[in-house]
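Second attempt. The first submission of phosphoglycerate mutase (2,3-diphosphoglycerate-dependent) had a stray character pasted in from the spreadsheet, which I only caught after the job came back as garbage. Lesson logged: always re-copy from the clean sequence file. Corrected sequence (187 aa) follows.
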Amino acid sequence: MPTEIVFETHSWSEDNDRGIATGWLPGRLSPRGRVLAAELGKRRRDDGIAAVFVSDLRRAVETADIAFSGTQIPVLHDWRLRECDYGDRNGMSAAELHEHRDRYLDEPYPGGESWRQAVHRVGRFLDDRYLRWVGQRVLVIGHVATRWALDHQIDGVPLEDLINADFAWREGWEYRIADPHNRQDRT
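This time the job returned cleanly.
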């Protein structure tokens, strides 16, 4: 039986409103974000989700708390699902930070990590998921780096293709993993 992973981004944050690249800073949801988080809960509560895995950054945790409050679905925090660590550039203008994002595919941001390192970190979460959740449907709430890791690790999309692509938000992405022993690490 395949494992199904549903990915949703954390909800809209105050930093999104201000055009800030939060990175490893906690951030918090805006009023619009709290409404969107409640909509996420309505969309996913009865979707066969066995567990929710969420980045431990505040904006992601707040999303999960609002979406799954009052349910029996376990919500598990995991630091490996964090956004790329922009290091000294956490909290700067998103437009400025991402203008030359491809420069940091393999070179770490000053005081932070590279995109490839971030994707590898999230990939370690995927490795551990096999210990308990094989054959089940799980939800992952995270960030750009989280989704890129899923696209790269599961679907084999080269990071070189992802680094310059538009993120294009939508209501969830779905991934299927047929055989946990057949997954290849593509980083």
